[in-house]
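Researcher: I'd like a structural prediction for the single chain below. Treat it as a standalone chain; there are no partners to consider.
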Amino acid sequence: MARITHFDHVGLTVADLDAALDFFVSLGFELEGRMFMEGEFVDTVIGIPGSRSEIATLFLPEGGAGGRDGGRTKLELSRFVHPDHEPGSPQNMSTEVGLRNIAFQVDDLHAVVERLAEAGYGLVGGIGEWEDIWRMTYVRGPEGIIVALAQRLDGAAETSEA
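Model: Treating it as a single chain, here is the predicted structure.
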């Protein structure tokens, strides 16, 4: 039976690629590459004839083990040059249908939140704790992207589940 072999990346469409890059780099991602994409292959895959976009691929340098790329956590940011991007709702809440958030485990939630606040990014709600196991919050990044940040509190081995 054919099956999925591994998780490859999450792709986000943004209007301001530089602002989105700055935000995710401040969370610890590193830029892997940046380029323009256009042509028959892209048009076929995304179903938009004559498209042109600029993409940036980022990765977490200590993203785990296994998989084709060593299990690295990868993120692809796309900015459409043609056609123009469709504006989303920059104030999305968790009840709206669609991609709700991108979640990352951190080693010091308060320090990460403070650093993001200094850069002008705020919390969607507050910082909550669940059963002395997780401390977690949602941060609203550029263009309304919601990033969930979670810190393991119980000393258990780190996992990718938050």
